[in-house]
Amino acid sequence: MTIQISEPRSQAGTAGPHLDIDLGAVAANTRLLAARASGALMAVVKADGFGHGALDVARTALAHGATSLGVTSLTEAWPLREAGLTAPVLSWLNPLDADFAEAVRCEVDVAVPGLEHLAAVAAAPGRARIHLHLDAGMARDGAAPAAWPRLCRAARRAEQRGEVEVVGLMGHLGCSDDPGDTCNALGRSRFAWALEIARACGLRPAQRHLAATAATLTDPLSHHTMSRVGAGLVGIDPSRTTSLRQPMTLTAPLVSVRRVRAGTPVGYGHAYRTPLGTHLGLVPLGYADGLPRTASGRAQVQLRGRRLPVVGRLSMDQLVIDLGDTGGEPGETVTVFGPGSAGEPTVADWAGWAGTIEHEIVTGLGGRIARRTRPVAHLRSV
Ligand SMILES: *Cc1c(COP(=O)(O)O)cnc(C)c1O
């Protein structure tokens, strides 16, 4: 027989809004992605683990199938090492004057998108572990194809001088959220060409990686030796093909309730007037906490198992809901979003109301919301 024993939730004040993060969901998503990837899995924990806590997501992903970590800047890599994580870490976007010497000391791999970066990294004492970065078709980061052969030759010479070790080749797909888009095949063939060039220059990197979450779920031809997944770990599937688990639940107490007459204007600009007499509830969350102001007029929350509209404009620190005949008492808990399993709004709903993507909602949640992390439940045989 198997029973689930979970540790007590970490302590946080009981008053005010709370963001609960279920690491069990991150663990389950990691296992699913690791099973889908033909190669290894890199857990991308940039932007504080997409707002879920970089260290928590990193530790959880490494315990459930990921074998390395990815971050944007080196400044995001240092805390992972300071916390004692020893897994390989790759940082792919840094200015030329970034502390590459410290990267070598901490054994953090860095991506190299061009000759200037190669020179800066090679100048650091010791032998830097680098991933040459190809622009696979976004005109964003990475070397343009025209610059790629020269970059490969220069990297090979730096390798022969003992300044660097080329351990990886990377690219990134611009349209993988739409698996049918021809831009994916174009990106894949550009990457395949780049691997050939690197090989012809004498480079033998063990890691070749192109796929992020969407391509890991929909495009096996892009997998190569490793997938870099971030969004999928926290339940976001840009390809909308796979059901992932949602780690975040945002709740807040109802601060006050007032009875109003029909025609009462609500909030800044009187953007809304109550059509009937009703009760309005005040919730202490606003756009400074990361709830998008552009969701005003569309957003909903849940109270007593029912969806209720956010009325008037969302303010910086507060929003007003129309309680209608649902009722509500100060101190009751309002669910702003959650996994959706009990009918509450989801992060995807909020993204839709604001005309944006889930990524922007989860990475934008403000620092003044108290966070509680629920650890992965341990399965223990009895
Ligand atoms: C953010 C990022 C990823 C992860 O993409 P997801 O779609 O979140 O999985 C992978 N590679 C690079 C270069 C990135 O910037």
Structure description:
The chain is elongated. The chain has two domains: 23-234, TIM Barrel (Alpha-Beta Barrel); 248-356, Lyase, Ornithine Decarboxylase, Chain A, domain 1. An eight-stranded parallel β-barrel has the order 3-4-5-6-7-8-9-10, surrounded by six helices. Strands 12-15-18-17-16 form a five-stranded antiparallel beta sheet, with no helix packed on it. A four-stranded mixed beta sheet has the order 19-11-2-20. The model is unreliable at 1-13 (pLDDT under 50). It is built from eleven helices and 21 strands. It has 382 residues and is of the alpha/beta class. Helix 1 packs across helix 3 and helix 10 (347-354) crosses helix 11. Bound molecules: pyridoxal-5'-phosphate. The site of pyridoxal-5'-phosphate has 12 residues, from strand 10. Pyridoxal-5'-phosphate (PLP) binds at residues 44, 46, 92, 172, 212-213, 228-232, 238.
Topology:
Layout: E1 2-5, E2 18-22, H1 23-36, E3 40-44, H2 46-51, H3 54-63, E4 68-71, H4 74-82, E5 89-91, H5 100-105, E6 108-112, H6 115-122, E7 128-133, H7 148-160, E8 164-170, H8 182-200, E9 207-211, H9 213-218, E10 226-229, E11 248-253, E12 256-260, E13 265-266, E14 272-273, E15 278-283, E16 300-303, E17 306-311, E18 319-322, E19 333-337, H10 347-354, H11 358-364, E20 370-374, E21 378-381
Parallel strand pairs: 2-20, 3-4, 3-10, 4-5, 5-6, 6-7, 7-8, 8-9, 9-10
Antiparallel strand pairs: 1-21, 2-11, 11-19, 12-15, 13-14, 15-18, 16-17, 17-18
Helix pairs in contact: 1-3, 10-11
The structure holds pyridoxal-5'-phosphate.
